[in-house]
Amino acid sequence: MSRLVIAPLLVVLGTAVLTLALGRRPQLQRATSVAGVVGYVAAVSVAVWTFVLAPAAPGAATYQVGDWPAPFGITLVLDGLSAFMLTIAAAVGLASMLFAVRYVTPENQRVYYHPLFHLLLVGVTGAFLTGDLFNLFVWFEVMLIVSYVFVAFYGTDYATAASFRYLVLNLFGSALMLVAVGGLYATTGTLNMADMARRLANPAAYGVDPAPVVGLSALLLAVFALKAGLVPFQFWVPAAYTAAPPPITAMFAGVTKKVGMYAVVRLYFTVFAGVPVSVDLAGSLGASPLAFLAPVLAAMGIASILVGGFGAVGQDRLEGVFAYSSVGQVGFIALPIAVAAAADPTGSLRGVAIAAALVFALHHALVKGLLFLSSAAVQDATGTDSLRDLGGVAGHSPVLSGAVFVALLSLIGLPPLTGFFGKFLAFDTAVRGLAVDLGVLSTLALVALLLGAVLTILYATRVWVDGFWGPETPAVETSTVDQGQVAVLVALAAAVVLVGVGFDPVYRFAETAASAAIDTEAYVDVVGLDGGGGA
């Protein structure tokens, strides 16, 4: 049964190889690519149900690559947290692929689109499953190498410049991550995350000096914030998002950004939370690296909400609005995590806050995927996504516009859509923080969330009024919308509605994921560490 843990990874890796081999048979290549994504969804669904969601599920499972026992071998871990993130990847990946076969030209699909798409999923899946810190770096690199190519996909001057900036920035980030990983190995004597957590929780027993962990974890936070597009590392986002093919932009916003936030939660709460080391930063005094994470991540989250929100209000293209909106919305994920870091580990707030962040991550993935794909459908039909050249899309294509309307309402936070629950839980986390005397952090978080909500209403209203309402422009009047693309958008809009209407099991899943993130002992137990005490 443990082989089910590695099944999603094998499916996408096998599909990448097959689609590369079928480059001279484009129709078969496209069919194989779609079948591969469907197989990935099936593999994720079976594994998540078997190990996490079924009534008799164990809650977590591991796969030891090559039968090498932990901590010496490569360990893959499927628990509630990784299962939740894999579910997001499967949902957005399926929608993006189905849209791509209708949107990307056959010539561009034939060149390298399909193998690279599945390699992107390989990197994402490996990052969510790995139980080894060095292999987290490796899977990050797999994901990033593919991303570089996709940003430069169309080969224009703009795309090439955006890809080069993205490449240079992430090369520095990767070097920084490698330094941090090497420093943690030198400090703890292991790269296995469960073994590292065990050693750091009881450093005297293993002869470990925990003091360097705070600084090394700060390096990792900078890298993960870069991957997530948090301020002040957000400046690559608008150019990369507008240069890449829209189905890939949906993957960037919906999935790859979440890898950075997942890594923050996994390492800080599962691995570093028990480190007995004093931290005194900006009045935040604590006995673990979480005391460092709380104020720094809160500042990043607040800045992201403001920069992204005001940036989106000032854009005059759909892609530009949604790219800056993505910067702002990731701040709504970061702030609950910051509150969780500041919360008392013995109380309930930490789990509630992480669950809130995960629910908002799910909302963001579905809605941003829908909006970026909708922008592509509009541009494909009209030849433009400029707000000044659009107008009357609602009357010309009511089904497409209805899907966009659902996404915008969810972005604003109207019940019973996913965005309502995401924003409600984020606000609830900040209010709970005030109730347990988290002080300035919760107050600033609450103010930023309120301002972010107002900015979201402003740019969402502008998109609808300027781009979809009013009299038809010449570009819209002569346009023809691809019905296959619209079908994908309708399916995503239906998912946004259904997740909101049937929110209770979704929230229970998020609670399970949050519990897995903060239960270090359970994580160590499931990995086993049969091989002993580490390298």
TrEMBL record:
UniProt keyword list: Cell membrane, Membrane, Transmembrane, Transmembrane helix
Domain of life of the native organism: Archaea
A single GO cellular-component term on record: plasma membrane
Ranges that cross the membrane: 6-22, 34-54, 74-99, 111-130, 136-154, 166-186, 206-226, 259-279, 291-315, 321-343, 399-426, 438-465, 485-503
Cellular compartments annotated: Cell membrane
GO molecular function: NADH dehydrogenase (ubiquinone) activity
Start and end residues of each NADH:quinone oxidoreductase/Mrp antiporter transmembrane domain: 131-435
Gene Ontology biological process: ATP synthesis coupled electron transport
Membrane topology: Multi-pass membrane protein
PANTHER family, sorted: NA(+)_H(+) ANTIPORTER SUBUNIT D1 (PTHR42703:SF1), NADH DEHYDROGENASE (PTHR42703)
Protein known as: Na+/H+ antiporter subunit D
